[in-house]
């Protein structure tokens, strides 16, 4: 039986049509702006995010890093959720590369209230404190369970951030999951963000790539940062070609991943010794806690039986559904989890 790999939606393989498009894409040197496939992807991406311009980057991490670089200067501070990918999983790149300090704000479920935002902004006239330049928001929120920000909370956060004079970056690695869950266009979710990064290489199944979007002026500055960081790529239309297919064909099917995640979470919640907060299972991510087993031992035992998950704490495991995981796989995986927990 082939492995059911729930570790992440980044394990997705490109579709046959993507592979075909990679072999036939029109190419040019993208650092010179000559690659027609990249140029087309950037046009389409900007339009989908409701921004003036866009820039293809190799990863979500690079897109977010550029989002920090163009929105805050060395010595300044950027507000971000304590559990944000930017703070938690990007190897302190804000500090190392940009000289920017992250001001962490702990949230209950990934959604930052206007009050939390205004409380985190430093006084402007105290030389002891860094200048708060920007805020980074994450939607869907990975470590909070793939939760989707309600649109009214999104709007309230943008409004407060701008009222406080902050620039706003949106880590929209999974913005299309949020858009499908809410039944809106991603541009609506990104509407008040000055810059947004979204990933092609997660649920949309591309092998590589993310897109950074913003105003024309900001994207020009971002191109300099991408070059500075060694992220300028040449005939990269080979990777942009699957991106165009992803935006055309892979967005609506995310609803299947959400339905599979729901079934998976409900099934897990019924297993002995498993706690799963179903209210947080809103898209394709399922976190659950084990009462009787340690997460690493559980993951190892599941792996031996053909199900792979990601331990994210001593007792916590993450399962992510994605292209390539079918409804039958969810049922097989639940049976395997039950066997492991009752062995
Ligand atoms: C919310 C979020 N932002 C950013 C990233 C980084 O993306 P990449 O792995 O392409 O660098 C991830 C990756 O999982 C993520 O979950």
Quickly list its features.
343 residues, alpha/beta, seven-stranded mixed sheet, four-stranded antiparallel sheet, 14 helices, 13 strands, binds pyridoxal-5'-phosphate
Topology:
Elements: E1 4-5, H1 16-24, H2 36-49, E2 53-57, H3 60-71, E3 77-81, H4 85-88, H5 93-98, E4 101-105, H6 114-120, E5 132-138, H7 151-163, E6 167-171, H8 175-182, H9 186-189, E7 195-199, E8 210-214, H10 216-228, H11 237-249, H12 254-269, E9 274-275, E10 285-290, H13 295-304, E11 307-308, E12 310-311, E13 316-320, H14 327-342
Helix pairs in contact: 1-11, 2-11, 3-10, 6-7, 12-14
Pyridoxal-5'-phosphate (PLP) binds at residues 59-61, 64, 85, 138, 142, 171, 173, 199, 201, 210.
What does this structure look like?
The mean pLDDT is 98. The chain is 42% helix and 16% strand. It contains 14 helices and 13 strands. With 343 residues, it is α/β, with parallel strands linked by helices. The structure holds pyridoxal-5'-phosphate. Pyridoxal-5'-phosphate (PLP) binds next to helix 3.
Give the names of the bound compounds.
pyridoxal-5'-phosphate
Put simply, the count of helices is: 14
Instruction: Report the average pLDDT across residues.
Output: 98
Helix content: 40-55%
Describe the main β-sheet briefly: 7 strands, mixed
Low-confidence stretches: none
Shape: globular
């Amino acid at each position: 039986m082939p492995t059911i790999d729930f570790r992440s939606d980044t394990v997705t393989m490109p579709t046959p049509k993507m592979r075909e498009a990679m072999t036939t894409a029109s190419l040019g040197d993208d650092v010179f702006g000559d690659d027609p496939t990249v140029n087309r992807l950037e046009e389409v991406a900007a339009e989908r995010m409701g921004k003036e311009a866009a820039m293809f980057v190799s990863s979500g991490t690079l897109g977010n890093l550029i989002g920090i670089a163009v929105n805050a200067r060395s010595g300044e501070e950027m507000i971000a959720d304590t559990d944000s990918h930017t703070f938690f999983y990007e190897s302190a790149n804000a500090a190392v590369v940009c000289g920017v300090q992250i001001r962490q704000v702990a949230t209950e479920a990934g959604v930052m209230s206007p009050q939390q935002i205004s409380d985190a902004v430093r006084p402007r006239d105290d030389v002891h404190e860094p200048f708060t330049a920007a805020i980074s928001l994450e939607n869907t929120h990975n470590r909070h369970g793939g939760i989707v920000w309600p649109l009214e909370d999104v709007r309230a956060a943008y409004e407060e951030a701008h009222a406080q004079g902050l620039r706003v970056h949106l880590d929209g690695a999974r913005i299309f999951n949020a858009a499908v869950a809410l039944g809106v266009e991603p541009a609506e979710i990104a509407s008040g963000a000055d810059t947004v990064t979204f990933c092609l290489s997660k649920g949309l199944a591309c092998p590589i790539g993310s897109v950074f979007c913003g105003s024309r002026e900001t994207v020009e500055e971002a191109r300099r940062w991408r070059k500075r960081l060694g992220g300028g790529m040449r005939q990269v239309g080979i990777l942009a070609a699957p991106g165009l297919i992803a935006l055309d064909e892979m967005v609506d099917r995310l609803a299947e991943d959400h339905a599979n995640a729901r079934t998976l979470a409900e099934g897990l919640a019924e297993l002995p010794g498993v706690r799963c907060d179903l209210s947080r299972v809103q898209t394709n991510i399922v976190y659950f806690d084990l009462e009787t087993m340690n997460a690493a031992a559980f993951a190892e035992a599941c792996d031996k039986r053909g199900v792979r998950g990601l331990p994210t704490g001593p007792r916590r495991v993450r399962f992510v559904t994605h292209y390539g995981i079918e409804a039958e796989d969810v049922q097989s995986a639940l049976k395997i989890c039950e066997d492991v927990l009752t062995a």
